[in-house]
Amino acid sequence: MFSLVLLFSSYLALVIQNRAALVAASDRSTADLLMIDRAKAFAGERSWSRHCQTIAPAQAFHETVAGKNVLFKDESTRIVITYEDRGQKFKMYLYYDDNGILSVEYD
After folding, report:
1. β pairing state of 100-106 and 88-97
2. HSE-up (13 A, CA, CB side) for residue 51
3. Strand (E) or helix (H) holding 106
4. End-to-end distance of the chain based on CA atoms, in angstroms?
């Protein structure tokens, strides 16, 4: 009987742990999409200023996205997005041209 209770408790702990990991991944995915959307707008602003030869927006800026302090930095052909989530640092590279985002890489 004890081993049956222990087995059930272990199973329940694993299910709860997996569910928590799934919720955390979903939250991070949503935050990443919001950051990519903001970077897309930033890339458009930078491209527009290059074509129209107007004053370019700042090359780097901090913004709060989904409760995280995010650094957006333009490096001419890519935007580097850096942020920290649950003590772990994340970095995304968004490559773009005048037509929009070409690819996204995670570091």
Report:
1. antiparallel
2. 9
3. strand 100-106
4. 48
The dihedral of CA 10, 16, 20, 25: what is its sign?
positive
> How high is the pLDDT of residue 80?
94
- Averaged pLDDT in 10-residue chunks for the chain of 107 residues: 82 85 77 88 82 77 88 90 89 87 86
pLDDT of residue 7: 84
CA atoms within 13 A of residue 57's CA, in its CB half-sphere:
16
β-sheet with 78-85: strand ranges across: 60-65, 68-74, 78-85, 88-97, 100-106
What tokens appear for 31 in the block?
Answer: 């935050």
- Please check whether residue 48 is in contact with residue 57, taking contact to mean a CB–CB distance below 8 angstroms: no
Query: Which pLDDT value is given to residue 97?
Result: 83
